[in-house]
Amino acid sequence: MGHRLRLVPYRAVNGNTRMMLAIKPDMIELAREGEPPSRVTRVLIGLDGGTLSSDGTYRAILHPDFALSGEPSPAPSQPA
Length: 80
Prior knowledge:
Blueprint: E1 5-11, E2 17-23, E3 28-30, E4 38-40, E5 45-47, H1 64-69
Antiparallel strand pairs: 1-2, 2-5, 3-4
């Protein structure tokens, strides 16, 4: 399981730099209304205990490329 865990550096909205725990699954399926599910194999799922919106409207943040094609264009891998 250790090879599936990553610490990902990120910059919060307030400008602070932090680390987020992320899981690297083999594959996920993204389902959109009116479309067949798409499989994504290069993905990290970041875990955060905070809330994304005060009213609970948002439960996840996806890279914008997921909305266009289902799988973002390849990015170079960096050691975690």
